[in-house]
Amino acid sequence: MSAPVKDKELFRISAAGTGRRRRGGPVSLALRAAVPVIAALVVAIGLWLAVSYLLLSPSRRFLVPPPEQVLLDSFGNWKHLQPMLTALGLTAEVALVGLAIASALGIFTAVAMSQASWVERAVYPYAVVLQTVPILAIVPLIGLWFDYGFTSRVIVCVIIALFPMIANTLFGLHSASQGAHDLFTLNKATRWQRLTKLQLPAALPSIFTGLRTSSGLSVIGAIVGDFFFKQGEPGIGTLLDVYRARLQSTDLFAAIILASLFGIAVFAVFTALGKLVVGKRS
Fold this sequence. Notes:
Residues 88-274 form the ABC transmembrane type-1 domain. The chain crosses the membrane at residues 29-56, 87-111, 123-146, 152-173, 252-273. Keywords: Cell membrane, Membrane, Transmembrane, Transmembrane helix, Transport. It is found in: Cell membrane. The chain contains 11 helices and no strands. It is mainly alpha-helical. α9 (191-228) packs antiparallel against α11 (249-281).
């Protein structure tokens, strides 16, 4: 081996070792990922404390109760926390059912649109209209047609979460390269084989992007439905409206935090699932 080749090999080994040292192990990567999140949380709590104690007088502090008061009076009091958890369970059920229906319907619609251009031309404009119509404008009609209970809440979730599934799945189905399509054509692949072995695998990253987006929108839809459809057991959105009307600020903040944590949890689950499935196929 000549001297220049040896120098290049030594440089490559040295660079690889430096890269490994820079990347570090799993613990180091987890710490680097967690530090910004913890720092942002500390800043948010600091701002919350500043607003409660510095900007508001004691007589107006009920507008933004300090975090320790929310922790003790709401999260630390089972009589206050138990109704919130029960309501959050109902809202979670509505959100997950709505997300499941929106996901199945969105993927099916996108597949149909990808297989026939006339279906795409006929359906896509109405999907856009469904996304752009203010949901609050049609909520009274949904309640009038489907009653004011569980079914209407699920329909609101489906309407809000459907379009991202259609748009992202359709984009993914069209993302397979022309070279791959030509290879399937040369091998006389059927339309079903082309769909299941080329287009759907290529669409998986986009499908999970749609799932992450739709999961958050479904939680929002469930809470919106709680606000307007109050028959049956109350959801977390119903309690938010009750706490607002009664000026129960600590419980209002606690309910908002619980709803936010649920939305984050659903988003995180689909993010992890997407990395697992797409990572295995890569």
